[in-house]
Amino acid sequence: MLLPPQVAHGVADGSMSVAFRRWKKQAVKPGSEFKTIAGVIRVVSVRAVRPEKITKADAVRAGHVDPDSVRKRLAGDEDWTTYRIELEYAGADPRIALRESAELTDEDVAAIDAKLDRLDRASSHGAWTMRTLDLIRQHPQRRAPDLAEIEGRETAPFKIDVRKLKGMGLTISHPVGYELSPRGLAYLERTRR
User: Which pTM does this prediction carry?
Assistant: First the structure.
């Protein structure tokens, strides 16, 4: 479930705690957690609601002025079910602490090597991980479409690959572009790949 940045920040600061989505089939379950720009958000509950029964209180908890505003923003086919999702802040994004941990042991380097090897082997476009890390190191905060073009790749799949590196704590995303994290820089200094 994707949350716009203002909603994610609202859940994190406690000013919002509800989201409404229209789905063909329920897309999240209670207990699910996902990483957002504001940290980890947890799904507390999910229940089907009739759009005309959305209350003013829930609309405000979802960051809207009134129920009509919520209904206007619901995407998807009107025949699909509308869900009320209660959300809570579950803590800081663990990738932030990971990306700052630059004192790598031999075991850390071996574990990163193994993960990158798995990503390269699973790729339909060949080994890409070290090329991408090096590309980001050479072009910090460069637009993703520019980096993808340098690699001769489409932007969307390129961004998905960079998110995999971010999940390992090796890169940092900026409003425009990426850069290597302290962990990513330390890894490149230590690796023999």
Answer: 0.64
